UniProtKB/TrEMBL annotation:
Keywords assigned: Activator, DNA-binding, Repressor, Transcription, Transcription regulation
Organism: Gluconobacter cerinus
Keyword Transmembrane helix belongs to the record: no
Keyword Metal-binding in record: no
Name this polypeptide is given: Transcriptional regulator
SMART domains: HTH_ARAC
Domain of life of the organism encoding this protein: Bacteria
HTH araC/xylS-type domain sequence ranges: 153-253
PROSITE patterns: HTH_ARAC_FAMILY_2
Signal peptide coordinates: none
Lineage: Bacteria, Pseudomonadati, Pseudomonadota, Alphaproteobacteria, Acetobacterales
GO terms of molecular function: DNA-binding transcription factor activity; sequence-specific DNA binding
Length: 260
């Protein structure tokens, strides 16, 4: 297992490596002095920041600006590549937190940087490669597969519990009590902080969770029942309304499909 702290004392403006984490590993909340670009090759991971939770699957990428407090929870064994970018490198300091699909060009540019290991001169070729990588990250369409988190600590505690067990079917009255609020207060505060109702937010948590599980090989019926749906048909309808594709289409187009 490698860490950014293992980098040499004065690394080039862009530097990276490939790594592997075992399922269940939690890299607790921390920050980096550099921006971090991660592309996930196999497995699934949940990355949580102060404001959002991302569930990433193979072929997806996440850009975190420098000094972003975040935690990574490996849902399965995880294979990934990561690039650390000096925030003073042109374009790197202005990119916001962003989840996106990693194009073949982005993966190729990362391969070139990683192949140079930690010791190389930032010549015109490497500057061009790094500059193009930043441009491609900026151009990549942002994926909407994220879950917002509330600022209120009582509600955040509830939301984190639901994200940890998205199939939990206990009703809003239970969660209002967990937050120490009356139902009406809980409902009103949730809407104001999240821009959606509690039920809609929980449905989103479930379909984002489902997408990750299906893409990494779990059966559609098993996912549906694990997440509290009475049958696979109602689950598939909800999934399609959220992502615009059916669970079967997602499974067929997943980078894992060739292995199944």
């Amino acid at each position: 297992m490698k860490r950014s702290a293992d980098l040499p004392a004065n690394p080039p403006p862009v530097v990276g490596f490939a790594d592997y984490y075992v399922g269940g590993f939690v890299d607790g909340f921390h920050t980096h002095e550099r921006a971090q670009l991660s592309v996930f090759m196999a497995g699934s991971v949940t990355v949580t920041t102060h404001e959002e939770s991302f569930v990433l699957r193979p072929g997806q990428a996440l850009w975190l600006p420098a000094h972003t407090l975040h935690q990574a929870t490996c849902r399965t064994d995880l294979s990934f590549q990561v690039i650390y970018v000096d925030p003073d490198f042109p374009g790197a300091g202005t990119l916001p937190c962003k989840m996106f699909d990693a194009s073949s060009l982005i993966r190729g540019l990362m391969d070139e940087i990683i192949a140079m290991s930690f010791e190389f001169a930032m010549d015109s070729r490497m500057s061009t490669i790094a500059g193009l990588l930043i441009d491609e990250v900026e151009r990549a369409p942002r994926l909407a597969e994220r879950v917002l988190l509330p600022a209120d600590p009582r509600m955040r505690r509830v939301c984190e519990a639901i994200i940890a067990k998205p199939g939990d079917c206990r009703d809003i009255d239970h969660w209002a009590r967990e937050a120490g609020m009356a139902r009406r207060t809980f409902t009103r505060l949730f809407q104001s902080q999240m821009g959606m109702g509690f039920a809609a937010w929980r449905r989103r948590v479930r379909v984002v969770e489902a997408a990750s599980r299906i893409a990494t090989g779990q059966s559609i019926a098993e996912v549906a029942f694990d997440l509290g749906y009475d049958n696979a048909s109602s689950f598939s309808s909800m999934f399609h309304r959220t992502f615009g594709v059916s669970p079967r289409e997602l499974r067929a187009n997943s980078p894992m499909a060739a292995r199944l």
